[in-house]
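[scheduler] slot 2 assigned
[scheduler] job type: sequence-to-structure, two independent chains
[scheduler] chain ordering preserved from manifest
[runner] begin chain α
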Amino acid sequence: MTPSYEARIARANQLAAVYPSSAQLLSFYVELARFQKPVFSDLQSRQETDPRALLCYFPALVKLISRSGTEPLRNFAALNLQNSDAQMILLSAVWEHADAVDPAGRFYARVLLQPFAEYLASRGSGVAIAGEGSRCPFCNARPVAGVLRPEGHGAKRWLACSLCSTEWPYRRVLCPGCGEEDKDKLPVYTAGEFPAARLDACDTCQTYLKSIDLTKDGHSVPVVDEIATVALNLWAEEHGYAKLETNLLGM
């Protein structure tokens, strides 16, 4: 179910024209996806399983960010990414899901770890482990989005990993943040501007997960549509909800 980098890039370019307010974010994402694509291909061709192999890509990534990134991202690289030891410590911390990682550092690590983790996940059977766990069954990262896929006369919910892009089935009436099961405490919010996107919120833990409904738009690429609908994030945060996990852009 993991979309190719070509599909992600094409969808981001398409949505940039549909949602002008998100065009800048989507253009930046396209640059990152174009950077990640050859990293994935290189790791795949070499059958590389050692994360130290990612160190050689840091200079090109820093150069990309110096051209297109924000000032906080540029400053972080100048102060913290000057040698391979620092780079490896950062990669290890994010790979192990450490919470106390600077958001800018997390960004750099995730840009490189994502194609690495996707490659490792692709070496398996390609079938997610069934179960009720709210963390990825492959790499233990939190989900970045929900995905509603057609099944029978309705839709089944899957969660999409924020790191390796694995998808795994998850009950629809169940909060992935705290396990709340009371449907009255699990409101769903939608906006007409984004017909295929919804916010699955929880009034118990005050978190939310954005879901992309493929029964309403089968052309959606969840990881991209999730970024394009950033206006929903802003609405949720204004109403007191915190996102369960940020996306690649830290949003």
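[runner] end chain α
[runner] begin chain β
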Amino acid sequence: MFGERIECAQQIYSRLCGMLPGQAAMYHSGMSRESAKNVLSRYQDGEVRILVGCRALDEGLNVPETDVGIVVSSSRAELQRVQRLGRILRRKQSGLPAKLYYLYLENSGEEAAYLENCSGDGFPVIPLIYDGETDRFLCAEFEPLAERVLAYSGDKKIASAEKAELLKNMELCLLRGDFCLAEELCVRERENAEDQPERNYWTAALLLARARLDRL
């Protein structure tokens, strides 16, 4: 998780410690070299799964299997943006894409075009808009696909409990960007699922993939 100021990163870290005890660590330039090395080692070893930091992470992070990054405060420096993208958007052994979330406020000094140049380099950019009234994220590309899947579930007379599970997992697919995955990846992940909740998730992703291909 990338930020610009240590104070901001510390606030995020404190919130995460309350929500997910023992799962987050803090990394910034104000730490001693030994402390910083220890934090990175704990993250690399999987002892903690969330690393919160500032600009120090731009050059200090080297964990190829990091698959999610969140930028909560942008940088206008092109080199810094490229460094942050390079830390996360690498080919993973699993074949699943890594994800980088960039958060910004509309009508503010934040740079809305932070990732726009990536789409031409094979990195799809999915614009999400948070709706405070419904407490949901919206995406113009996702909505028609979800409608097709719901229509399909109605045609198949899926039980209400199963439909609720489908809706929940489709919302997760939106947030994770997995509604854009190729059908074969979704099939593989569903076959390799370790439990029923994971299988249900990849079933939802597969239905969305097939809706995108007009195969429902």
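[runner] end chain β
[qc] chain β: Strands lie at 24-27, 50-53, 68-71, 99-102, 129-131, 136-138.
[scheduler] slot 2 released
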